Amino acid sequence: MRLRLSAMMMTTGVLLAGCMNKPAVNLGGPPNPYNYMKVSGLCHTDPLASTGKDTQATTMQVRSDDGYCAVEVRKPDGHAYASFGVSPAPEHGKAFIYNYNDHTYVTYTANTAYAGNDTFRVQLIRGEKEPRDTLNITAHVEAPGVGTAAK
User: Fold this and answer.
1) CATH number assigned to the domain comprising residue 40
2) pTM, rounded to two decimals
């Protein structure tokens, strides 16, 4: 009887192990904890540049192909920001900010078929009673099927 019970328990354990959830494979770009976002066919971000006290700026080149382009930001101590917001928001796309694995990511997705420039500002909050940081982003957006000349 004991042997039969042990065999049933072991069989049940083996069967349930096959149901175990496995993490999705990330094939490039920043971590994608939501598994539904796709990276734009063109995504290039310049390094963050200091433009004043607690203020940084960057530019990104992105295609309006319904994919995102992301930039990673961190507090001066190397950790993720406690909170964040966007003001003003981009006029020709969407900004999405999230924390993942102690990193803060700012993503931008241009409106489909838009071509031109878009700008937005991200307010990054380090923590309670700490200074806020500002990140100004300028996105140079090209429409799908339109190439830019090499510089």
Assistant:
1) 2.60.40.10
2) 0.74
